[in-house]
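The instructor's notes for this session suggest beginning with a concrete chain rather than abstract definitions. Hand out the sequence below and ask the class to guess, before any prediction is shown, which regions might be ordered.
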Amino acid sequence: MGFLDLFAVSSIPVLKVLLVTGLGSYLALDRINILGEDARKHLNNIVFFVFNPALITSNLAKTITYESMVQMWFMPFNILITFIIGSALGWVVIQITRAPPHLHGLVIGCCAAGNLGNMLLIIIPAVCKERGSPFGDPDVCSKYGMAYASLSMAIGAIYLWSYVYNIIRISSSRNTKEVEINDFSITKSSRESSIVPSGWSSTEPLLSSDDITGSEDHLSEHQPNQLALPQTRFEEKPQVSFPDKIKQHLEMFLRKMNLKRLFAPSTTGAIVGFIVGLVPQIRKLLIGDTAPLHVIQDTSLLLGDGAIPAVTLIMGGNLLNGLKGSGIQKSIILGILIVRYVALPLLGIVVVKGALRFGLVHHNPLYQFVLLLQFALPPAMNIGTMSQLFGAGENECSVIMLWCYTLASITLTLWSTVFLWLVA
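After discussion, reveal the predicted structure:
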Protein backbone atom coordinates (compact mmCIF):
# COMPACT_ATOMS: atom_id res chain seq x y z
CA MET A 1 0.00 0.00 0.00
CA GLY A 2 1.13 3.54 -0.74
CA PHE A 3 1.62 6.23 1.87
CA LEU A 4 -1.53 8.09 0.76
CA ASP A 5 -3.59 4.90 1.02
CA LEU A 6 -2.32 4.34 4.55
CA PHE A 7 -3.12 7.96 5.38
CA ALA A 8 -6.70 7.45 4.21
CA VAL A 9 -7.04 4.26 6.26
CA SER A 10 -5.70 5.92 9.43
CA SER A 11 -7.76 9.11 9.03
CA ILE A 12 -11.17 7.40 9.04
CA PRO A 13 -11.02 6.17 12.68
CA VAL A 14 -9.90 9.61 13.89
CA LEU A 15 -12.73 11.27 11.95
CA LYS A 16 -15.21 8.93 13.64
CA VAL A 17 -13.83 9.97 17.03
CA LEU A 18 -14.12 13.65 16.05
CA LEU A 19 -17.74 13.28 14.94
CA VAL A 20 -18.86 11.57 18.15
CA THR A 21 -16.79 13.98 20.27
CA GLY A 22 -18.36 16.95 18.49
CA LEU A 23 -21.80 15.48 19.15
CA GLY A 24 -20.94 15.16 22.86
CA SER A 25 -19.81 18.81 22.98
CA TYR A 26 -23.03 19.90 21.24
CA LEU A 27 -25.24 17.93 23.65
CA ALA A 28 -23.36 19.47 26.60
CA LEU A 29 -24.07 23.09 25.56
CA ASP A 30 -26.13 25.07 28.05
CA ARG A 31 -28.93 25.73 25.57
CA ILE A 32 -29.19 22.01 24.74
CA ASN A 33 -28.39 20.62 28.22
CA ILE A 34 -28.91 16.96 27.32
CA LEU A 35 -25.41 16.00 28.42
CA GLY A 36 -24.94 18.52 31.21
CA GLU A 37 -22.58 18.17 34.14
CA ASP A 38 -24.91 15.98 36.19
CA ALA A 39 -25.78 13.81 33.19
CA ARG A 40 -22.08 13.33 32.36
CA LYS A 41 -21.40 12.40 35.96
CA HIS A 42 -24.11 9.72 36.01
CA LEU A 43 -23.16 8.39 32.57
CA ASN A 44 -19.52 8.29 33.60
CA ASN A 45 -20.45 6.18 36.63
CA ILE A 46 -22.27 3.71 34.37
CA VAL A 47 -19.25 3.52 32.05
CA PHE A 48 -16.83 3.17 34.96
CA PHE A 49 -18.75 0.49 36.87
CA VAL A 50 -20.60 -1.40 34.09
CA PHE A 51 -19.57 -0.78 30.47
CA ASN A 52 -15.77 -0.78 30.75
CA PRO A 53 -15.51 -3.88 33.02
CA ALA A 54 -17.92 -5.77 30.73
CA LEU A 55 -15.94 -4.76 27.64
CA ILE A 56 -12.59 -5.78 29.11
CA THR A 57 -13.86 -9.04 30.61
CA SER A 58 -15.62 -10.23 27.44
CA ASN A 59 -12.76 -9.40 25.06
CA LEU A 60 -10.00 -10.84 27.24
CA ALA A 61 -12.01 -13.98 27.98
CA LYS A 62 -12.47 -14.64 24.24
CA THR A 63 -8.86 -14.23 23.19
CA ILE A 64 -6.62 -14.89 26.20
CA THR A 65 -4.88 -18.26 26.18
CA TYR A 66 -1.48 -19.40 27.35
CA GLU A 67 -0.14 -18.94 23.82
CA SER A 68 -1.45 -15.37 23.52
CA MET A 69 -0.13 -14.53 26.99
CA VAL A 70 3.33 -15.57 25.89
CA GLN A 71 2.98 -13.34 22.83
CA MET A 72 1.68 -10.30 24.76
CA TRP A 73 4.07 -10.39 27.72
CA PHE A 74 5.97 -7.32 26.49
CA MET A 75 2.94 -4.99 26.53
CA PRO A 76 2.97 -4.24 30.31
CA PHE A 77 6.67 -3.35 30.04
CA ASN A 78 6.00 -1.18 26.99
CA ILE A 79 3.33 0.77 28.89
CA LEU A 80 5.66 1.11 31.87
CA ILE A 81 8.32 2.55 29.54
CA THR A 82 5.84 5.16 28.27
CA PHE A 83 5.17 6.22 31.88
CA ILE A 84 8.89 6.40 32.77
CA ILE A 85 9.94 8.34 29.67
CA GLY A 86 6.89 10.61 29.92
CA SER A 87 7.62 11.38 33.58
CA ALA A 88 11.24 12.27 32.80
CA LEU A 89 10.20 14.55 29.94
CA GLY A 90 7.48 16.09 32.13
CA TRP A 91 10.11 16.96 34.74
CA VAL A 92 12.13 18.65 31.97
CA VAL A 93 9.04 20.67 30.97
CA ILE A 94 8.61 21.79 34.59
CA GLN A 95 12.23 22.92 34.81
CA ILE A 96 12.14 24.81 31.51
CA THR A 97 8.75 26.49 31.95
CA ARG A 98 9.11 27.03 35.73
CA ALA A 99 5.60 25.74 36.26
CA PRO A 100 3.89 26.63 39.57
CA PRO A 101 4.28 23.98 42.30
CA HIS A 102 0.59 23.08 42.32
CA LEU A 103 0.81 22.09 38.63
CA HIS A 104 3.88 19.83 38.92
CA GLY A 105 1.85 16.66 39.41
CA LEU A 106 -0.57 17.63 36.64
CA VAL A 107 2.23 18.26 34.12
CA ILE A 108 4.01 14.99 34.94
CA GLY A 109 0.73 13.08 34.82
CA CYS A 110 -0.26 14.50 31.42
CA CYS A 111 3.17 13.67 30.00
CA ALA A 112 3.32 10.18 31.51
CA ALA A 113 -0.20 8.72 31.17
CA GLY A 114 -1.83 8.36 27.77
CA ASN A 115 -5.41 7.39 27.00
CA LEU A 116 -4.46 3.72 26.77
CA GLY A 117 -7.97 2.35 26.83
CA ASN A 118 -10.71 4.37 25.24
CA MET A 119 -8.78 5.70 22.24
CA LEU A 120 -7.41 2.27 21.36
CA LEU A 121 -10.85 0.71 21.74
CA ILE A 122 -12.13 3.18 19.15
CA ILE A 123 -9.19 3.27 16.73
CA ILE A 124 -8.19 -0.41 16.50
CA PRO A 125 -11.58 -1.87 15.42
CA ALA A 126 -12.07 1.00 12.96
CA VAL A 127 -8.67 0.37 11.36
CA CYS A 128 -9.38 -3.36 11.15
CA LYS A 129 -12.72 -2.84 9.42
CA GLU A 130 -11.45 -0.22 6.98
CA ARG A 131 -11.01 -1.37 3.37
CA GLY A 132 -7.34 -1.73 2.52
CA SER A 133 -6.24 -2.44 6.08
CA PRO A 134 -2.84 -4.19 6.20
CA PHE A 135 -3.96 -6.49 9.03
CA GLY A 136 -5.81 -9.10 6.99
CA ASP A 137 -9.25 -10.49 7.77
CA PRO A 138 -11.36 -7.81 9.56
CA ASP A 139 -13.00 -10.26 11.98
CA VAL A 140 -9.73 -11.82 13.10
CA CYS A 141 -8.11 -8.39 13.30
CA SER A 142 -10.96 -7.02 15.43
CA LYS A 143 -10.90 -10.06 17.70
CA TYR A 144 -7.22 -9.78 18.57
CA GLY A 145 -7.14 -6.01 18.31
CA MET A 146 -9.83 -5.69 20.99
CA ALA A 147 -7.87 -8.09 23.19
CA TYR A 148 -4.75 -5.93 22.83
CA ALA A 149 -6.75 -2.77 23.52
CA SER A 150 -8.49 -4.33 26.54
CA LEU A 151 -5.19 -5.49 28.04
CA SER A 152 -3.74 -2.04 27.40
CA MET A 153 -6.69 -0.43 29.18
CA ALA A 154 -6.36 -2.72 32.20
CA ILE A 155 -2.58 -2.27 32.57
CA GLY A 156 -2.90 1.47 31.98
CA ALA A 157 -5.54 1.74 34.72
CA ILE A 158 -3.23 0.03 37.22
CA TYR A 159 -0.32 2.35 36.42
CA LEU A 160 -2.57 5.39 36.33
CA TRP A 161 -4.18 4.88 39.73
CA SER A 162 -1.02 3.64 41.45
CA TYR A 163 1.49 6.13 40.05
CA VAL A 164 -0.13 9.27 38.57
CA TYR A 165 -2.78 9.34 41.32
CA ASN A 166 -0.11 9.54 44.01
CA ILE A 167 2.01 12.03 42.04
CA ILE A 168 -0.92 14.46 41.85
CA ARG A 169 -1.85 13.76 45.48
CA ILE A 170 1.67 14.51 46.75
CA SER A 171 1.93 17.62 44.58
CA SER A 172 -1.39 18.99 45.83
CA SER A 173 -0.58 18.18 49.48
CA ARG A 174 2.77 20.00 49.24
CA ASN A 175 1.06 23.05 47.83
CA THR A 176 -1.54 22.95 50.61
CA LYS A 177 1.21 22.75 53.26
CA GLU A 178 3.04 25.71 51.73
CA VAL A 179 -0.14 27.78 51.80
CA GLU A 180 -0.78 26.83 55.42
CA ILE A 181 2.80 27.74 56.41
CA ASN A 182 2.55 31.11 54.68
CA ASP A 183 -0.79 31.84 56.29
CA PHE A 184 0.59 30.84 59.70
CA SER A 185 3.68 33.05 59.35
CA ILE A 186 1.57 36.01 58.24
CA THR A 187 -0.85 35.50 61.12
CA LYS A 188 2.00 35.11 63.62
CA SER A 189 3.78 38.26 62.44
CA SER A 190 0.56 40.26 62.59
CA ARG A 191 -0.08 39.04 66.14
CA GLU A 192 3.44 39.93 67.24
CA SER A 193 3.18 43.39 65.73
CA SER A 194 -0.10 43.94 67.56
CA ILE A 195 1.50 42.99 70.90
CA VAL A 196 4.36 45.51 70.60
CA PRO A 197 3.14 49.03 71.65
CA SER A 198 3.22 51.76 69.09
CA GLY A 199 6.42 53.77 69.06
CA TRP A 200 8.53 50.78 70.12
CA SER A 201 10.87 49.09 67.73
CA SER A 202 10.31 45.36 67.39
CA THR A 203 14.06 44.84 67.11
CA GLU A 204 14.80 46.36 70.55
CA PRO A 205 14.61 44.09 73.64
CA LEU A 206 11.99 44.97 76.23
CA LEU A 207 14.54 44.30 79.00
CA SER A 208 18.31 44.58 78.89
CA SER A 209 20.48 41.62 79.84
CA ASP A 210 21.45 43.31 83.09
CA ASP A 211 17.82 43.83 84.04
CA ILE A 212 17.07 40.20 83.33
CA THR A 213 20.05 39.02 85.40
CA GLY A 214 19.13 41.31 88.27
CA SER A 215 15.57 40.19 88.35
CA GLU A 216 16.65 36.57 88.34
CA ASP A 217 19.04 37.17 91.25
CA HIS A 218 16.30 38.96 93.16
CA LEU A 219 13.94 36.07 92.65
CA SER A 220 16.56 33.53 93.59
CA GLU A 221 17.33 35.32 96.88
CA HIS A 222 13.84 36.07 98.10
CA GLN A 223 11.68 33.54 96.30
CA PRO A 224 13.84 30.50 95.70
CA ASN A 225 10.91 28.12 95.46
CA GLN A 226 8.86 30.10 93.00
CA LEU A 227 11.30 29.90 90.09
CA ALA A 228 11.99 26.42 88.89
CA LEU A 229 13.43 25.35 85.59
CA PRO A 230 11.29 22.90 83.65
CA GLN A 231 12.47 19.38 84.05
CA THR A 232 13.09 17.39 80.89
CA ARG A 233 12.08 13.77 81.05
CA PHE A 234 13.77 11.30 78.80
CA GLU A 235 11.27 8.56 78.20
CA GLU A 236 12.62 5.47 76.58
CA LYS A 237 10.73 4.57 73.42
CA PRO A 238 9.70 0.95 73.26
CA GLN A 239 11.94 -1.04 70.97
CA VAL A 240 10.13 -2.11 67.79
CA SER A 241 11.28 -5.30 66.14
CA PHE A 242 12.34 -5.30 62.50
CA PRO A 243 9.32 -7.34 61.27
CA ASP A 244 6.96 -4.94 63.08
CA LYS A 245 8.65 -1.97 61.40
CA ILE A 246 8.19 -3.59 58.01
CA LYS A 247 4.55 -4.27 58.83
CA GLN A 248 3.98 -0.66 59.93
CA HIS A 249 5.60 0.76 56.79
CA LEU A 250 3.62 -1.65 54.60
CA GLU A 251 0.33 -0.68 56.24
CA MET A 252 1.16 3.02 55.81
CA PHE A 253 2.09 2.45 52.16
CA LEU A 254 -1.14 0.56 51.44
CA ARG A 255 -3.22 3.30 53.08
CA LYS A 256 -1.57 5.96 50.96
CA MET A 257 -1.75 3.82 47.83
CA ASN A 258 -5.57 3.71 48.01
CA LEU A 259 -6.21 0.13 46.91
CA LYS A 260 -9.84 0.97 46.20
CA ARG A 261 -8.69 3.20 43.36
CA LEU A 262 -5.97 0.77 42.28
CA PHE A 263 -8.38 -2.16 41.93
CA ALA A 264 -10.87 -0.23 39.85
CA PRO A 265 -13.74 -2.11 38.18
CA SER A 266 -11.74 -2.20 34.92
CA THR A 267 -8.86 -3.92 36.70
CA THR A 268 -11.24 -6.37 38.34
CA GLY A 269 -12.79 -7.06 34.94
CA ALA A 270 -9.34 -7.80 33.54
CA ILE A 271 -8.65 -10.26 36.35
CA VAL A 272 -11.96 -12.04 35.68
CA GLY A 273 -11.20 -12.12 31.96
CA PHE A 274 -7.80 -13.67 32.59
CA ILE A 275 -9.32 -16.33 34.86
CA VAL A 276 -12.01 -17.24 32.33
CA GLY A 277 -9.54 -17.36 29.45
CA LEU A 278 -6.78 -19.31 31.20
CA VAL A 279 -8.83 -21.88 33.13
CA PRO A 280 -10.00 -24.49 30.58
CA GLN A 281 -12.97 -25.69 32.64
CA ILE A 282 -14.43 -22.17 33.02
CA ARG A 283 -13.65 -21.33 29.39
CA LYS A 284 -15.62 -24.32 28.14
CA LEU A 285 -18.62 -23.24 30.21
CA LEU A 286 -18.71 -19.62 28.98
CA ILE A 287 -16.91 -19.19 25.66
CA GLY A 288 -18.29 -20.42 22.34
CA ASP A 289 -21.72 -20.86 20.79
CA THR A 290 -22.02 -24.40 22.18
CA ALA A 291 -20.98 -23.43 25.74
CA PRO A 292 -23.72 -24.12 28.34
CA LEU A 293 -23.44 -20.60 29.84
CA HIS A 294 -22.58 -18.67 26.69
CA VAL A 295 -25.48 -16.29 27.41
CA ILE A 296 -23.34 -14.71 30.14
CA GLN A 297 -20.56 -13.97 27.67
CA ASP A 298 -23.07 -12.65 25.12
CA THR A 299 -24.58 -10.33 27.73
CA SER A 300 -21.14 -9.08 28.68
CA LEU A 301 -20.36 -8.34 25.02
CA LEU A 302 -23.68 -6.51 24.64
CA LEU A 303 -22.94 -4.28 27.64
CA GLY A 304 -19.36 -3.69 26.54
CA ASP A 305 -20.50 -2.38 23.15
CA GLY A 306 -21.96 0.65 24.93
CA ALA A 307 -18.61 1.72 26.40
CA ILE A 308 -17.03 3.24 23.29
CA PRO A 309 -19.81 5.67 22.24
CA ALA A 310 -20.59 6.63 25.85
CA VAL A 311 -16.97 7.43 26.70
CA THR A 312 -16.52 9.47 23.51
CA LEU A 313 -19.66 11.51 24.21
CA ILE A 314 -18.47 12.22 27.77
CA MET A 315 -15.07 13.27 26.45
CA GLY A 316 -16.71 15.77 24.09
CA GLY A 317 -18.79 17.23 26.91
CA ASN A 318 -15.81 17.56 29.25
CA LEU A 319 -13.76 19.43 26.65
CA LEU A 320 -16.18 22.36 26.83
CA ASN A 321 -14.67 23.35 30.18
CA GLY A 322 -11.40 24.10 28.42
CA LEU A 323 -13.06 26.80 26.28
CA LYS A 324 -13.58 28.90 29.40
CA GLY A 325 -9.82 29.30 29.70
CA SER A 326 -7.51 29.78 32.69
CA GLY A 327 -4.29 31.53 33.61
CA ILE A 328 -2.04 28.63 32.61
CA GLN A 329 1.21 29.49 30.86
CA LYS A 330 1.22 28.81 27.12
CA SER A 331 4.71 27.37 27.44
CA ILE A 332 3.38 24.58 29.71
CA ILE A 333 0.73 23.59 27.15
CA LEU A 334 3.31 23.73 24.36
CA GLY A 335 5.72 21.59 26.39
CA ILE A 336 3.10 18.90 27.03
CA LEU A 337 2.10 18.87 23.35
CA ILE A 338 5.73 18.44 22.26
CA VAL A 339 6.26 15.61 24.74
CA ARG A 340 3.11 13.70 23.83
CA TYR A 341 3.04 14.23 20.08
CA VAL A 342 6.71 14.57 19.08
CA ALA A 343 9.17 13.18 21.63
CA LEU A 344 7.24 10.14 22.88
CA PRO A 345 6.25 8.76 19.43
CA LEU A 346 9.83 9.10 18.15
CA LEU A 347 11.20 7.34 21.23
CA GLY A 348 8.44 4.75 20.90
CA ILE A 349 9.69 3.79 17.45
CA VAL A 350 13.16 3.28 18.92
CA VAL A 351 11.81 1.17 21.81
CA VAL A 352 9.53 -1.09 19.75
CA LYS A 353 11.99 -1.57 16.89
CA GLY A 354 14.73 -2.31 19.42
CA ALA A 355 12.53 -4.87 21.17
CA LEU A 356 11.74 -6.44 17.79
CA ARG A 357 15.44 -6.60 16.91
CA PHE A 358 16.31 -8.38 20.17
CA GLY A 359 13.43 -10.85 19.83
CA LEU A 360 11.30 -9.43 22.66
CA VAL A 361 8.36 -8.76 20.33
CA HIS A 362 7.04 -11.25 17.79
CA HIS A 363 6.50 -10.35 14.13
CA ASN A 364 2.81 -9.50 14.36
CA PRO A 365 1.99 -6.24 12.52
CA LEU A 366 -1.17 -5.54 14.55
CA TYR A 367 0.59 -6.12 17.87
CA GLN A 368 3.48 -3.87 16.85
CA PHE A 369 1.02 -1.20 15.70
CA VAL A 370 -0.70 -1.21 19.11
CA LEU A 371 2.65 -0.97 20.91
CA LEU A 372 3.68 2.00 18.77
CA LEU A 373 0.31 3.70 19.12
CA GLN A 374 0.61 3.61 22.93
CA PHE A 375 3.36 6.25 22.64
CA ALA A 376 1.28 8.69 20.54
CA LEU A 377 -1.99 8.97 22.48
CA PRO A 378 -3.37 12.11 24.19
CA PRO A 379 -3.35 12.31 28.02
CA ALA A 380 -5.68 10.07 30.01
CA MET A 381 -9.05 11.67 30.73
CA ASN A 382 -9.00 10.35 34.31
CA ILE A 383 -6.29 12.92 35.10
CA GLY A 384 -9.10 15.48 35.06
CA THR A 385 -10.94 13.40 37.66
CA MET A 386 -7.83 13.37 39.86
CA SER A 387 -7.33 17.13 39.57
CA GLN A 388 -10.95 17.63 40.65
CA LEU A 389 -10.50 15.18 43.51
CA PHE A 390 -7.52 17.05 44.99
CA GLY A 391 -8.47 20.54 43.83
CA ALA A 392 -5.14 21.00 42.04
CA GLY A 393 -5.31 22.72 38.66
CA GLU A 394 -8.86 21.84 37.60
CA ASN A 395 -9.22 24.73 35.13
CA GLU A 396 -5.67 24.28 33.87
CA CYS A 397 -6.35 20.58 33.27
CA SER A 398 -9.43 21.40 31.18
CA VAL A 399 -7.40 23.74 28.96
CA ILE A 400 -4.62 21.16 28.56
CA MET A 401 -7.14 18.47 27.59
CA LEU A 402 -8.85 20.80 25.12
CA TRP A 403 -5.61 21.51 23.25
CA CYS A 404 -4.35 17.92 23.43
CA TYR A 405 -7.54 16.34 22.12
CA THR A 406 -8.06 19.04 19.49
CA LEU A 407 -4.60 18.45 18.04
CA ALA A 408 -4.94 14.67 18.46
CA SER A 409 -7.12 14.60 15.34
CA ILE A 410 -4.07 15.67 13.32
CA THR A 411 -1.25 13.99 15.21
CA LEU A 412 -2.99 10.62 15.59
CA THR A 413 -3.73 10.53 11.88
CA LEU A 414 -0.13 11.34 10.97
CA TRP A 415 1.47 8.97 13.46
CA SER A 416 -1.00 6.17 12.64
CA THR A 417 0.01 6.53 9.00
CA VAL A 418 3.70 6.36 9.90
CA PHE A 419 3.17 3.36 12.18
CA LEU A 420 1.12 1.51 9.55
CA TRP A 421 3.89 2.15 7.04
CA LEU A 422 6.51 0.83 9.48
CA VAL A 423 4.70 -2.41 10.35
CA ALA A 424 3.29 -3.11 6.89
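Then share the key points. The CA atoms of residues 118 and 308 lie 7 Å apart. DSSP finds 18 helices and no strands in the chain.
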